[in-house]
Write a structure and sequence with these properties.
five-stranded antiparallel β-sheet, 35% helix, alpha+beta, elongated
């Protein structure tokens, strides 16, 4: 069985991305994460965590938020890793780590 641990990439949200988060939370009446006010959220170093998915057919790569990966694996507990559909060709996407492991055997 393959490990369910993937390398994640963290990066700070840009000012525009923070504004999108604020607008989304406001639209749905949700509080900002960690009880931030607008001002404290905009000043904070907010990190986004994601993994890279790679298509096994066309080699296209895309970023997917790690929260989606966690939700996928919770919903499909028997899966060792998430799979998706490539937006470019319709092929199967898998985490880059898994792709590299499979192709280095």
């Amino acid at each position: 069985m393959m490990a369910r641990n993937f390398n994640t990439i963290k990066r700070s949200l840009s000012r525009e991305e923070k504004k999108q988060v604020v607008n989304s939370h406001n639209k749905y009446g949700l509080p900002l994460p960690d009880n931030h006010t607008y001002q404290s959220f905009m000043k904070a170093d907010i990190q986004d965590e994601f993994i890279i998915m790679k298509c096994t057919k066309c080699n296209n790569e895309e970023e997917i938020q790690f929260d989606f990966v966690k939700a996928y694996l919770k919903h499909y507990p028997d899966q060792d890793y998430p799979e998706g559909i490539c937006d470019k060709c319709g092929g199967k996407t898998i985490p880059l780590d898994v792709y590299l492991e499979n192709n280095n055997k």
